[in-house]
Amino acid sequence: MEKTYALISLGCAKNLVNSEQMLYLMSEAGYTLVSDPDGADLVIVNTCGFIDAAKSEAIDNILEMAELKKAGRLGGLIVTGCLPERYKETILAELPEIDAVLGISNFKDIVAAADAVMEGRTLSLFSDQSAPVDELPRVVTTGPGWAWLRIAEGCDNFCAFCAIPYIRGRYRSRSMENILEEARDLANHGAKELIVIAQDITRYGTDLYGKRMLAELCRRLSEIEGVKWLRLHYLYPDQFDDELIDEIASNPKIVKYLDIPIQHINNRILESMNRRGTGDEIRALFKTLRERVPGLVLRTSLIAGLPGEGEAEFEELCAFLREAKIERVGVFPFSPEEGTPAAKMEHVDFEEAQRRADLIMELQAPIMDEFCASFIGKTLDVLCEGYDEESGQWYGRSYADSPEIDGQVFFEGEGREGELVPVLIDSAEDGLLYGRTKEGEA
Known about the structure:
Elements: E1 3-9, H1 13-28, E2 31-33, E3 42-47, H2 52-70, E4 76-81, H3 82-86, H4 91-94, E5 100-102, H5 110-118, E6 123-125, E7 146-150, E8 152-153, H6 164-168, E9 172-173, H7 176-188, E10 193-197, H8 214-222, E11 229-233, H9 242-250, E12 254-259, H10 267-272, H11 279-292, E13 297-304, H12 311-324, E14 328-333, H13 350-373, E15 379-388, E16 393-397, E17 409-412, E18 420-429, E19 432-437
Parallel strand pairs: 1-2, 1-3, 3-4, 4-5, 5-6, 7-10, 10-11, 11-12, 12-13, 13-14, 17-19
Antiparallel strand pairs: 8-9, 15-16, 15-18, 16-17, 18-19
Helix pairs in contact: 8-9, 12-13
């Protein structure tokens, strides 16, 4: 008898990797994936629990699935990921509609959970959240032409505003050989771009090898046949060294796009938030990177309304952005997360934090427009992701665009899904680029 299940994956790319691992394990166990939980034997909700908005989204999805179950249109409900890990003591009591919960170190137990629910049993499994990273195969759901490559799990930074170390555990690097083996497999299955991810990739190897090994890992990854682009997410500003900067500058496969979350620029706020380094050191790093990496695109994330941010501190942040002209900026209003030191500190209310976040995005709009306009008349390699029937154009991403957070390139002519295509840029509008394939090169 066929056993069907649906999977809802919420949150970040690292969570999606865990979802892809569960897809593989469920398939191997004989379960059939369906796109709609309505009518399925099971649904798995892989949750994020990082900030209030993510928790609300997770709970809304769980309650929606609970309604389907109550109506007799869904068999069982399994919840995995950050939300149950964060609330392991109370989640089953507060959400009794759930049949099984798995913590962040228990994705490997998804089949046991599914079997238990199919048999009418409940299950709750939580292992050491700082245990070594499980090496599990995946069913890649991204692309075409790209995939996430997770190199570590957990975080040791303990920023005052962040709950990730309490949810995901201490920093644990995967072995280089395991990463390279997975990267070769991804390349063999058509991945031209590998996006290297972890909560903090700059610390890669410090726990396993006693020193920073990201530069060496990038060298080894770039030797893999079929890999054209390596994209680095997320690099912490205090962990850069000359070896890494030289590797980024000299390795043609590392796209000149660096995601470096700084959160703020004011010294006092950085110190109170347990961020390592000063505003002047961030300014100096960005200046050095600009000088040594021609064509560099910087991306950062900021938090508006952090504890200690008054009008003067906020204006310092805005002045920095006007001066630095960072090409890609994401900004979030401060969310006081229970259990973190920052939650106990005095801060502006959410509405004011949101107002400041909106002002930053208004400030950034002309910077982004100017940056996009700089590509007009130039030819960019574009990783072709598909064809848009409505516009009658192909679309994809350039080196300056990370999936799901940045812009896209729409182009006329011949496209090849999952391949790099040279596109001559004709125009730019609202963060999107428009062009055409160069004749004879598509």
